[in-house]
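Propose amino acids for all 317 sites.
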């Protein structure tokens, strides 16, 4: 069955995926310049919230109301959970092959993966998105009005904002991350028409909001549920999503589109590429090395994506 793809959204996800790669290259680099540090803060201020907000745009409320839960869940397991285990296995092997000092046994690697103690840092997004989208599906079945969805998302977002940065228990942080992801996906669902429509005034307003969030909300790390200022966090996520979507509307790049279409693949394997690159070449803050690392990682992600597509099929969430 042919599945209609929204090229603008796939390209937007490709842009965000490129920012994820850049962010992790910068994060792994030593002796960052002031420019590199600023880029890192800019990227982390909005890129993961934007991924979830854009995922909300893709959620068809009427279609999913008719969809049975078993079918919905099996589709997500096939496209998210199975790749998660594959990427984690590759990550565990890569880390142990290129590790310094003691190495884990293959059995230990499997146990760690099965208990969701991740080797690949970015894989937190896959599990978080899977569980959050299941909650969104259930809420969509139960709650008929947009106002009801907005109330649940707003309440959970405020709750997460209150407890952010205060909890060190890993399981509690995991739960808060899912609730935050749920809120952002719902915001994306409700703001779909606004985010996809082009308007020069909106671009100016979004630009101003984005700059404010980057300048005044520099302590953002969604993996650890650190939002900084919650209002600026949300403002940055929404305005960043809008700007990326509008940029995607004017970009005609098959490579960027492919990277976005199979962003789950790139999310799961790009850090392995960065580690291996660092093992061979080292990682420091020099611009040429950073650019070379990004280029190599990007191309390898595209190659692995092509292999993945040939094995698991041509369509992706």
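Proposal:
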């Amino acid at each position: 069955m042919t599945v209609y793809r929204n090229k603008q959204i796939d390209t937007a996800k490709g842009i965000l995926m490129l920012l994820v790669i850049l962010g992790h290259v910068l994060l792994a680099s030593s002796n960052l310049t002031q420019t590199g540090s600023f880029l890192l803060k800019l990227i982390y201020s909005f890129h993961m919230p934007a991924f979830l907000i854009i995922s909300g745009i893709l959620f068809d409320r009427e279609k999913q109301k008719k969809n049975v839960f078993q079918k919905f869940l099996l589709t997500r397991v096939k496209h998210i959970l199975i790749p998660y285990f594959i990427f984690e296995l590759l990550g565990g092997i890569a880390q142990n092959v290129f590790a310094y000092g003691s190495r884990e046994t293959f059995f230990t690697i499997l146990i760690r993966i099965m208990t969701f103690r991740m080797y690949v840092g970015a894989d937190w997004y896959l599990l978080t998105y899977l569980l959050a989208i299941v909650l969104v599906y259930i809420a969509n079945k139960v709650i008929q009005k947009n106002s009801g969805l907005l109330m649940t998302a707003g309440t959970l977002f405020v709750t997460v904002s209150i407890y952010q940065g205060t909890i060190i228990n890993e399981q509690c942080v995991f739960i808060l991350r899912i609730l935050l992801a749920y809120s952002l996906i719902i915001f994306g669902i409700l703001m779909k028409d606004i985010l996809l429509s082009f308007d020069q005034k909106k671009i100016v307003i979004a630009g101003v909001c984005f700059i404010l969030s980057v300048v005044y909300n520099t302590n953002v790390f969604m993996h650890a549920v650190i939002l900084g200022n919650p209002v600026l966090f949300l403002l940055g996520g929404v305005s960043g999503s809008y700007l990326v979507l509008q940029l995607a509307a004017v970009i005609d790049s098959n490579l960027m589109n492919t990277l976005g279409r199979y962003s789950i693949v790139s999310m799961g394997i790009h850090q392995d590429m960065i580690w291996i690159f660092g093992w061979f070449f080292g990682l420091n803050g020099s611009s040429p090395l950073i650019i070379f690392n990004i280029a190599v990682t990007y191309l390898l992600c595209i190659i692995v994506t092509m292999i993945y597509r040939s094995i698991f099929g041509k369509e992706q969430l």
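The chain has 15 helices and no strands. The radius of gyration is 19 Å.
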